[in-house]
Amino acid sequence: MNHIENLTRYIANFVDELSKSGLTDVVISPGSRSTPLAMTFAEHPEIKEWIVLDERSAAYFGLGLAKQTKRPVALVCSSGTAAANYFPAIVEAHQSRVPLLALTADRPHELRDVGAPQAIDQIKLFGDYVKSFHEMALPESIPSMLQYARTRAARAANEALTGNAGPVHLNFPFREPLIPDFSLENLWGEPLQEPYTIWHEGQKRLSDSFMKQFAAKLSSFKKGVIVCGPQVKEELAEAVSLLAESFGLPIIADPLSQVRTGEHATNNIIEGYDAFLRNEKVRNALKPDYILRFGAMPVSKAYLFYVKDHIDVNQYVVEHHEGYREPVGNPTEFILADSVSFCSDLLEEAPTIIAEDNEWLAQWKQMNEVVKKHIAKVADGSLTEGEAVKTLVEIIPDNSSLYVGNSMAIRDVDTFLMTSKKKLTLLANRGANGIDGMVSSGVGAAASGQPVTLLLGDLSFYHDMNGLLTAKHYNLNITILVVNNNGGGIFSFLPQASNEKHFEALFGTPLHIEFQKAIDMYGGSYYNPTTAMELKEALQSSYKEKGLSVVEVKTDRTDNFHWHKKLWSGIEHEILKTVME
Amino acid sequence: MNHIENLTRYIANFVDELSKSGLTDVVISPGSRSTPLAMTFAEHPEIKEWIVLDERSAAYFGLGLAKQTKRPVALVCSSGTAAANYFPAIVEAHQSRVPLLALTADRPHELRDVGAPQAIDQIKLFGDYVKSFHEMALPESIPSMLQYARTRAARAANEALTGNAGPVHLNFPFREPLIPDFSLENLWGEPLQEPYTIWHEGQKRLSDSFMKQFAAKLSSFKKGVIVCGPQVKEELAEAVSLLAESFGLPIIADPLSQVRTGEHATNNIIEGYDAFLRNEKVRNALKPDYILRFGAMPVSKAYLFYVKDHIDVNQYVVEHHEGYREPVGNPTEFILADSVSFCSDLLEEAPTIIAEDNEWLAQWKQMNEVVKKHIAKVADGSLTEGEAVKTLVEIIPDNSSLYVGNSMAIRDVDTFLMTSKKKLTLLANRGANGIDGMVSSGVGAAASGQPVTLLLGDLSFYHDMNGLLTAKHYNLNITILVVNNNGGGIFSFLPQASNEKHFEALFGTPLHIEFQKAIDMYGGSYYNPTTAMELKEALQSSYKEKGLSVVEVKTDRTDNFHWHKKLWSGIEHEILKTVME
């Protein structure tokens, strides 16, 4: 068979099998060497292609879309530094367990490492940051090689998704000419063909005898704490809240745990822990007998100190598959089991219901109430950063996603996101906590069709303004709330802030740019509210609009620092006065 | 000694030794974990620090500065995806042999791979793309560890620069607290201390007997061609032009060879080869006995075909140190020797001067003249892409640098940059030929104080608009000529262009954005000339201005394709008529 037919059938079978394996979206960055993949994806009737020019943004767009849909998303780029631009998002996908398929085009072997243009060594380009790497064979269309193409497609899509999800990298050597011939008969294989390979993945469950013993052990303690860190399993909220009620336990619920909001019972959920665990006396008073954690470590540094302070406490960390996420260094029992099944199995073995309103739980609830009341009344009309985030989480629509930037944004959401019946999906790039790729991540999530609000600071916004092009290009519905304190606001909270000589240049790093001009360039609606009421109105009208809306709230870094300090000390004062006396 | 003193002395000795090893510039991206490095660099009296927020841009800024100065430039960033954002520029630095030091801050060992925030595996993060990687020890200030810090600094700076230059990566584990104490006595070591280690690098020279034989061999041939591909050694121009005159040889001089312009003799320099070697008849008529190449493969695809057509020709490729840059696959003799010494050694052994105006050389010169005359007269007043580049290379100031983007920009410079006495430094990212990082590369080159003009297309400009922030921040003098054909102009020249269904979406990729708004945001002067005369005036006034100037020339992709086609066929017609008949 000739070159074009080899190329066409090989890639068509590959792409078709990806589709049959559940892949619905591909993010393509333009290039010549990647023509066979790009054109075949565009030709395939079941796969939606997204063209994103900046490969760094493209990979983050794919990441956001995959986070939102929990399906693998493919990335296609040409050879050279194009692929290297995927690296930050690949790292984040690895760290936060997101299924991505990086499909990189490459020169064929005879044009590698000989000074040919745009040829770099792409073998294992992403090192240990991918779950697997495979160098694809040159295109051939004999039956065994079409089978190979199909099995590799199915493997890649399923490897990315099974166990701890993560990125997979396939590198494709292509010889010229590069243009497939879509007029070939049976281009996609036989009509109505079943998937070539199918994956059935079981869940880890511990034995009945273990669960019985474990339940008995927990029941022997008076003071337990359930912790829900960042995690994405929706069903956990219901399961863990039943468990908490049955055992009479408080749930420390990170904003990214998906547990703070929803239709499940939220009686035992403690949202205010970050405020009251800042105080050492409180941490000592709340010393638990055990901690049972689902998901990653919470964002809260106060919680980190709480664990650090109690090295002699039984700590149980539940992981669905594997992984070591215990940064404190305390002794730990790792429970490798599906979190939802584990909750229901534990509930079944619970010998008695301990107490719905035991003293231990009451203490947590009481402190939490103090925090909630204090936060509810801090509004002083002016549009502080805290007020902006508080307003946002209050009026964000039901059945929508909130994509949260790192540094200040996630910490403010931790403070201000209270339990409610709203169905919110909380997304963030907390694998490596970078400020890069945030706009594209949010826009990628919005590409799923789900309404998305992206909350981030000015440095994150600047870092990935290129991501706005895709929102414009596809007229995606996204509201971006930029809290612009002209620099790195979080550094004001760190010891570096006391160094007058170097602080502003090295850490404060003001941008001094007017984002409105960029937003105008990308065809977005722009709002610049200066009061909480104006912000509310701006957000509400942005939600009614189609396309890109950017709401910029301009604040002051120093004011923000003092505002937060005052908030924490006010809460501390009230806690010490009303609860700890 | 206490933690702070250990930290301070260790990093101060490291930074001071970098300075003593010739490092003058560091590019710092803000972060917390990198505080010891960032603050110590900022404190050091001899090193200039540049704060660049987007780490991808930061690394390209360092690349451009290192390309311009030929000195190593250090990059400092925090842990996490910050470091991953360096990857594209690290790849380019590896491919195009540019000395960079990536100094990445990391969590200490006890906080790695345990789910601690912003902690990723940074060991060998850049794989084989760095010349060496070293995981630094934790800071200590006993004498042996200060010696270690100094030797590692000196090694890194010198490794980056010796042999084929390239990037080096050092990863620094830091424990909190992170703030050094600059009030310590003898912070930078003893006053007037000599460099701790000094490197003396020799040059490769072949033996006299080899050179005698080689000169005799070349003299036995009638038809030789000297090729100067992309290379950065300034002295080559003089040496190779003397050699060419002595042996009566044409010099095929790539625009990036640094040989086209300057005070040296340019009689034998052929700039028009890309035009006339497009024709197969011409390639056959110009079949050489041997090719002697310095530098990398030229940009010209016509030259590639010329080599491909003549597999039976003696091909000699000169490399200063090592490397295999022969993408055609023809038989080759590699000469590992310093190019300038090699030229003068060869000249010394040249038995006789063959002929200044032999028939072989005359034939090349004649064709070249046809091309030059044709190009000189194509101006039709309208501002085509060709006209824009022609105007730019005509009026670009003496003693300045031209940083050239990939795709169309470098090809148009290949066509329109003619020999002249101007001292121009030609820079480009031709290691991997990416369209990423171009703005930052140009701005980095301008940070050296050398006047820089950056020529690039709209996609390259868009890809790294973030790079403009640094030009604004430091008020750097740079003129950027953006040829905006609203998309990927080079694809119109490829076979993909004939695919009506997918071409515009996958390859044409129009941006449809008004750059003027971004330029306004970054405080640049903006020009939008619509005639060649207006362009000339715009460039001239941009050169008189301080700071950032962007000149945007709006063109049409299809017109540009036809314009170039017409140019090539016009030249071909004249060559066939006047020279080949």
What does this structure look like?
The structure is a homodimer of 581-residue chains. Chain A has helices at 3-20, 35-43, 55-69, 81-84, 87-96, 143-161, 208-220, 236-247, 273-276, 280-285, 301-309, 339-349, 359-377, 385-395, 408-416, 438-446, 458-463, 468-474, 503-508, 515-521, 532-544, 557-578; strands at 25-28, 48-51, 73-77, 100-106, 132-135, 167-173, 224-228, 251-253, 269-270, 290-294, 314-319, 333-336, 400-404, 424-428, 452-457, 478-484, 525-527, 548-554. The longest helix of chain A is centred in the C-terminal third of the chain and has 22 residues, at 557-578. The model of chain A has no long low-confidence stretch (mean pLDDT 95). Chain A is globular, with a radius of gyration of 26 Å. In chain A, helix 21 (532-544) links the parallel strand 17 (525-527) and strand 18. The first copy, chain A, is built from 22 helices and 18 strands. Chain A starts with a helix and ends with a helix. Helix content of chain A is 41%, strand content 15%. Chain A has a six-stranded parallel sheet with strand order 2-1-3-4-6-5, sandwiched between helices. Chain A has three domains: 3-173, Rossmann fold, CATH 3.40.50; 208-357, TPP-binding domain (Rossmann fold), CATH 3.40.50; 378-570, Thiamin diphosphate (ThDP)-binding fold, Pyr/PP domains (Rossmann fold, 3-Layer(aba) Sandwich). With 581 residues, the first copy, chain A, is an alpha/beta fold. The interface between A and B is large, with 85 and 87 residues.
